[in-house]
Write a structure and sequence with these properties.
The structure is a single chain. α5 packs across α7 and α8 crosses α9. It is built from 20 helices and 15 strands. The protein is flat and about 100 Å long. It is about 35% helix and about 20% strand. It has three domains: about 90 residues, Orthogonal Bundle (Arc Repressor Mutant, subunit A); about 100 residues, Arc Repressor Mutant, subunit A (Orthogonal Bundle); about 260 residues, Bira Bifunctional Protein, Domain 2 (BirA Bifunctional Protein, domain 2, 2-Layer Sandwich).
């Protein structure tokens, strides 16, 4: 049986009753990591066993280190008292209130002083005060001495006073098996091995005749985890790349925006339930945007109040510009679409964004306060719902999702409207992945846009639930999304 130099050193150092890896390190001069590695190699060959042991010891806190140098407060006060005693009022002039406050109770408890009332003051008279068990323990711990004989009550007192704390360390205990002990008895010759050739050794020829360290390429090694993108970043990059390949351009815009862009310009009535503090996040400071485009504001006001020249009756209420000026965290990235439509009013146009949005929802397996939305819109002549559904089928098929279902729904700013569902690979249930439709005339009229615009908002996290099989959206965010989870995510987005 061939053993490396480190294995031989460890084998020779370990006694019959076994040793801690730290002690073997001291005996051999090897690092603890090298000792542990050699011990596991010996264990694979049936010559040793390795197990974890938890080692506990008392260590001084910051306060304890100060007391170890200066003495406990009761000792400091006791030794400063004259034999005839000293009034408490005078002690307060010499020591801090903290020191006196701690010392008084312990002087009484340990019987180191007598307290007498005189002339409206308290006279403190010192009594014999031999070293107490807690002082002895404090001295031993401070000097790094053996802790086996420390008195239990003294340690409880020191722990209660936050002078010491218990420190636990996990260590490796290495013991030789009968086969290992037998091999050790026969004698183990330790020879210096060459672990790595150097240019100097090659030039001088000093490597000749020396044994070389053997490497077991089949032995287990520590897993190396290379850096990679977060699963959400991988998904965002892939979605962006896919939409760019489909001819879209990317939009950018503020996460904090006026309700005018988040709601009003989308023909969302100002008394809509989704616009209350229970469903959106309003800002305290600053509370309002400084200004809005006057021409667009007037047209939005007219459409809301009476429908303008769209043929609609509008919402038949008095529209309030102050409400429209309130700043909120955007609840959807359609606010970006609202801003871009003011610039790109002539067809054909195709834009998208992948960005965070914020909603005051109850957190559950499919809802979060913050998530990522895939926003997109297409402007052209003679568009229909078939164009919208065809865009979804093309987009999702490029990401490996073929089975989609569509369900009619209602949105304040699209008509007709569709919800999009994808099939979860594990549960088989259909998960809503987004909402879509054709923008209403009431929304497009303030811009002066007369052609068709199809648009959508898709959930990035729910897309990942379908692709990876996750059943809880919280797996992708927060404390559940730990380093082990991120390491387990395969890189399937690179194309």
């Amino acid at each position: 049986m061939e053993l490396s130099t480190n294995e031989k050193l460890v084998l020779k150092a370990i006694g019959e009753s076994g040793m801690m890896a730290r002690d073997v390190s001291k005996a051999t001069g090897l690092k603890v990591e090298a000792v542990t590695h050699a011990a596991y190699l010996l264990a694979e060959k049936g010559l040793a066993s390795v197990k974890d042991e938890v080692r506990s010891e008392y260590v001084l806190t910051e306060e304890g280190r100060r007391y170890a140098e200066q003495g406990l407060p009761e000792r400091v006060i006791h030794d400063a008292l004259p034999h005839s005693g000293e009034p408490l009022s005078r002690l307060k002039e010499r020591f801090t209130q903290s020191t006196i406050g701690i010392a008084m109770g312990w002087l009484r408890q340990k019987g180191w002083a007598r307290f007498e009332r005189r002339d409206g003051d308290t006279l403190i008279v010192p009594l014999p005060a031999p070293m107490s068990p807690d002082e002895e323990a404090l001295s031993i711990i401070g000097k790094g001495g053996p802790q086996e004989g420390l008195q239990e009550k003294a340690m409880k007192d020191l722990l209660r006073r936050n002078i010491v704390e218990i420190k636990e360390e996990r260590e490796k205990f290495i013991a030789l098996t009968p086969e290992g002990l037998e091999l050790k008895k026969k004698g183990v010759a330790v020879e210096e091995e060459v672990g790595q050739l150097t240019p100097e050794m090659l030039a001088s020829g000093s490597w000749q005749g020396k044994p070389f360290k053997r490497y077991d390429v089949s032995a287990p090694v520590i897993m190396e985890y290379g850096g990679k993108k977060h699963v959400l970043r991988m998904a965002m990059d892939s979605v962006k790349r896919t939409l760019i390949e489909m001819g879209f351009k990317e939009m950018e815009g503020p996460m904090v925006d006026a309700e005018f862009y988040v709601n009003d310009i989308l023909f969302m009535p100002q008394d809509h339930p989704a616009r209350t503090q229970w469903d959106q996040f309003n800002l305290k400071r600053p509370k309002y945007i400084k200004q809005l485009p006057r021409d667009l504001v007037n047209k939005v006001k007219e459409v809301h109040e009476n429908g303008g020249d769209t043929g609609s009756l509008g919402w038949n209420y008095r529209w309030d510009e102050n409400i429209a000026k309130r700043l909120v965290l955007r609840g959807h990235t359609t606010s970006l679409t609202a801003r871009y439509l003011a610039i790109y009013r002539k067809p054909p146009q195709k834009f998208f964004s992948v960005a965070p949005v914020f909603r005051n929802d109850a957190i559950d397996m499919t809802h979060l306060l913050e998530f990522y939305q895939i926003e997109g819109w297409v402007m052209d002549e003679q568009l229909s719902m078939r164009d919208l559904m065809g865009t979804f089928k093309e987009f999702y098929s490029r990401l490996g999702i073929e089975e989609l279902r569509f369900k009619p729904t209602y949105n304040p700013y699209t008509e007709p409207s569709l919800e999009i569902y994808g099939k979860h690979p594990r549960s088989g249930r259909m998960i809503e992945v987004g909402n879509s439709g054709m923008f209403r005339k009431e929304m497009l009229a303030p811009y002066g846009i007369e052609c068709d615009v199809i648009a959508w908002g898709l959930a990035l996290e729910r897309l990942l639930m379908i692709l990876y099989g996750y059943e809880d959206i919280r797996d992708l965010h927060g404390p559940l999304c730990d380093i082990n989870f991120l390491r387990s995510v395969p890189v399937i987005w690179q194309r």
